Amino acid sequence: MDPTNNPEAIGMVLCTCSECIKSEHTDASGKQVKGLWIHCGTCRHHMNRKSDGSKELSMLKALSENFCTKA
Questions:
Q1: 71 and 65 Cβ atoms separated by less than 8 Å
Q2: Rounded-to-integer distance, Cα 69 and Cα 62, Å
Q3: Whole-prediction pTM value?
């Protein structure tokens, strides 16, 4: 598979912040997915700008940071 067709292979993450979730695309398996593929640092910034201290948001931030350290 061509790595340019695989966002994860080039260090991108699926951002589902309140703005990015408005976008949709079709994944490699043909399913409709909400969100935008962006750099993990940008996703972290998106999640921080609307931070409300919720437990779910904290979990998403931790997952994003964990992914960035492994990418």
A1: no
A2: 11
A3: 0.57
